[in-house]
């Protein structure tokens, strides 16, 4: 009997369609990789101001697609939940709270919580209460938990977390809290039906106003009305017993902060005109000081709409800015005013003036200090000591000076000056203490000593430390430092001598846990017992390796090998992110520790060790400005040289199969991937997530590039892989969130790059994730991304084709 071939072909076509359809929708990777998504990590923690209690917050790491698909409003750079007047995608959210006493070990669980995610927890300055928010469908509620009585109370007031994402603040005296109320929560919002139909008009006066590519800006008069409706709040005071006292009339509250003596409130309010060009942070605003009962005490400033800030990363708005309270005084305002028109490119001897204004604000404000470069901040200790910092982008310099607040423009002691990229010279962070007002200031012991903690970056890796600095002699003494084979960081100093510490200790195989360390007696007591979250990856091998690129710059990265590695050559997945420097020696610095715990996060390359792939994580890709040139003048050359050096190092170690190396990255790392595929033949395939590929779509600067497109057309075109797509001969997987709000990385960037590759006959795959932003949050999305990457690597890296 003779059979026609057509039914067989038809069956094969149908089977192919079935196979294709099985890949429609969200997919799940292999079990070993999927398990990483659900691994339970150690909780977030907060030590009480009196160093007696540690609060632990179980983290809600991922959301559901249902959560992300809820209706959102995008206004003036904010993505908000209109139903409960809050930000729709907070970064840190929690599921439960547990509190443990440092010395007795007594544990207290916060029980009786309503359903909803926990947000913005904080200790009261006197350490007796923890405040936090539970966000529910209709509104966000403020909760207080009394540690001593274990009493939990809820305030039924509706909070507005649209502009002030943390809608409450403790009074420094711990007698209560200030909150921003949602005035319009029960009112009907403006709609397209009620809004007038009018033209959208923008006009320029001819003055330069370079603006970076922001997303989610106001676009219509209706958007302006909605921003005003949802942003409208009202300041109130809430007592520990829950009594609510209204303090102001409704306004769009941008900031509110009580004075250290709890007698005044500094309030910033957004005012019209709003803008279609910049986010809310650059809108006009009015700043006033109120009494604690709500009366206006004095007007402080009117900040104008800042659409015309000068070009440059260290450029600022004109007029008063960074208005705050001096932390070591009862009620003294502090602010900064530019003396250069807001532009660091102006050749002036002094770029900023720092002013102070003391309550009751009857006399004029006083010029406190002249700042040679751009003001970076001031840390207060007492009447004799403060740390004044300034910086400059052109040479990446940051400087810290010790000043006497009674004579701030008198003799200053240079505490530290370095490139802010120079990790080896980083002196660390000052140990702080809660002062008599309830605010945080630098801890000064015996009016002479300050203590600093830092990660201790060195050519041997990070070696965390605790130092004592002698103000009188200007010298430092090392009190303690971490010792191999552990990576141990100081989280709190419990005494004046620096001998009793709370540390966070880990090793390559031991999950970080808190310890109580007695330096003098060399004793160590374990305080927590968090379990290893990835036991299936416990035996992987880790090694820090260093190598040089052809211009002599020393590079490094961390090599991970599968647990069952037998010495053979392996396919390799490299995951990197380029950074810019002004100094070759700084670019060569090691910035992690060989003894850190091996995290197998779902975000990066580590899960693919389960597929028998070696991982080379964070191989340094420095872009260095040399001999007065800007780093990006030779971006492509340095990028390819760094990648080539990494590949050669892996091949020379006998680890890598040179014909099977993949390159991957996220955001600027995705930009790197496309450039390396276009301008080298080092890699078999690439994975590029949430990237930007055409720099003409970010014409007023990107990453560390200050020049605009019209000043650096050659640089913009040379760096844009979209302009060189015809040179990409390797398959590239691109992934992007449909609602990416990040400056410059519109989803259109990936869509246009994919269309270019498709039109040129290149091999590419584009995955657009519904409801996702620049990072991916839904469990379904994360699992699908892991599946996409796993299948892509199987197809392009692991196959024998």
From TrEMBL:
<dbReference type="InterPro" id="IPR011042">
    <property type="entry name" value="6-blade_b-propeller_TolB-like"/>
</dbReference>
<dbReference type="GO" id="GO:0004252">
    <property type="term" value="F:serine-type endopeptidase activity"/>
</dbReference>
<keyword id="KW-0378">Hydrolase</keyword>
<feature type="signal peptide">
    <location>
        <begin position="1"/>
        <end position="22"/>
    </location>
</feature>
<dbReference type="InterPro" id="IPR029058">
    <property type="entry name" value="AB_hydrolase_fold"/>
</dbReference>
<protein>
    <submittedName>
        <fullName>Glutamyl endopeptidase</fullName>
    </submittedName>
</protein>
<keyword id="KW-0732">Signal</keyword>
<dbReference type="Pfam" id="PF00326">
    <property type="entry name" value="Peptidase_S9"/>
</dbReference>
<dbReference type="GO" id="GO:0006508">
    <property type="term" value="P:proteolysis"/>
</dbReference>
<feature type="domain" description="Peptidase S9 prolyl oligopeptidase catalytic">
    <location>
        <begin position="645"/>
        <end position="797"/>
    </location>
</feature>
<dbReference type="InterPro" id="IPR001375">
    <property type="entry name" value="Peptidase_S9_cat"/>
</dbReference>
